């Protein structure tokens, strides 16, 4: 089901924000211009919060060991050995929702 | 003790001696186990104990924050095998490349401990056997009776080196640092392990060099500059050095940096003070340096804009400075991760 996680303007412009998901694991929201993406909150490498990383509109980088992911798909790039788990996200009336599978 | 490590790629078996950490034992056997600091802070050498008994050399190690006790996870840099044991490492592990400087144990006789500033000292150690290392690497230094070991970069470069020069910043409450600053220590013989670290410069690197150092982080960059100058690297490539400290009284190694500049006139060296403008007498004393005020990574960003083509960056210093520099190098400079070299051991 769609679960509200935060207001869109709570995510720093062209930045990252970790949010709690009622009934699910936390996710990291990335903003790039008009677009938003939602991924697993922690890097698959060493469980470091991805919200402490950076993105340049194309590539999301975890600063702990420079694992990089495609911002739009979560696919592993360069040295990363695993992709990010992507969450469906919708943006309605300034609110962001992610899809949580019912347990 | 037989230690078996199963990684994503291969499985390895090696011998650990009594009291020796699992990381030391594996690295000594030229097995490229994952690590960064080797000294209990970063958590990179995390492994899961599948079988056997392991003692923890430093139960308070900060790197333990990433561990899950219920999964029997441990830090290989602190774990000492008490019995034969089997571990799983959640990483790819490859044998070290041929020609790699395989680390080992050695003893360092502390010849001198010389103040460089009010809170930084230089250690000169005679080592036996001589150490073969790459410019930019570090050693772990222990002191008998003090838990944990600390990582210090070599300042000098020789191959092999029978003398190592290290830089230590005083850290109130830090065991090793308090011991060094606490009284006469010359003559002490200290256990060392190394060389370690992957933020290295080798002469086959066909890149311009950008060195960004904060405080005692300049140490390993000095070794890189020494080797690069010695092999004529700056006759073919540009070199940019940014050395940041708080105030003029925190500066050191300026004579050595000026020596590199005299030997390699194309080398650009910028001194950056974060807490005050550079006093005129310092500027006058070092006419071949540029000066700036602010955070060192921001000064580097200002000076390097548009000049990042073909650059490899080496970054060392306090963690906020290293993180700031990496952000600049990824976002503004758009350097590939392989061209941003740093070791996290603070």
SSE map:
The complex is a heterodimer of chains A (103) and B (346).
Chain A: E1 2-7, E2 16-19, E3 27-32, E4 35-40, E5 54-55, E6 59-61, E7 68-70, E8 76-77, E9 86-87, E10 89-92, E11 95-99
Antiparallel strand pairs in A: 1-11, 2-3, 3-4, 4-9, 5-6, 6-7, 7-8, 10-11
Chain B: E1 2-6, E2 11-15, H1 22-28, E3 46-51, E4 54-56, E5 73-75, E6 79-81, E7 85-88, E8 104-115, E9 120-131, E10 138-141, E11 150-153, E12 161-169, H2 175-181, E13 189-196, E14 208-214, H3 218-230, H4 233-236, E15 239-245, H5 254-263, E16 267-273, H6 280-285, E17 290-293, H7 296-304, E18 311-316, H8 319-332, E19 340-341
Parallel strand pairs in B: 1-7, 14-15, 14-18, 15-16, 16-17, 18-19
Antiparallel strand pairs in B: 1-2, 3-5, 3-7, 4-6, 8-9, 8-13, 9-12, 10-11, 10-13
Task: Describe this structure in a few short sentences.
The complex is a heterodimer of chains A (103) and B (346). Chain A has 103 residues and is mainly β.
Structural write-up:
The complex is a heterodimer of chains A (103) and B (346). Chain A is mostly beta strands. Chain A has no helices and 11 strands. In chain A, the strands form 3 sheets. A 4-stranded antiparallel sheet of chain A has the order 2-3-4-9, with no helix packed on it. The radius of gyration of chain A is 13 Å and the shape is globular. Chain A starts with a strand and ends with a strand. The model of chain A has no long low-confidence stretch (mean pLDDT 92). With 346 residues, chain B is of the alpha/beta class. Chain B has 3 domains: 87 residues, Beta-grasp domain (Ubiquitin-like (UB roll), Roll); 93 residues, Elongation Factor Tu (Ef-tu), domain 3 (Beta Barrel); 134 residues, Nucleotide-binding domain of ferredoxin-NADP reductase (FNR) module (Rossmann fold, 3-Layer(aba) Sandwich), CATH 3.40.50.80. Classes of the chains: A mainly beta (103), B alpha/beta (346). At the A-B interface, loops of A face helix 8 of B.
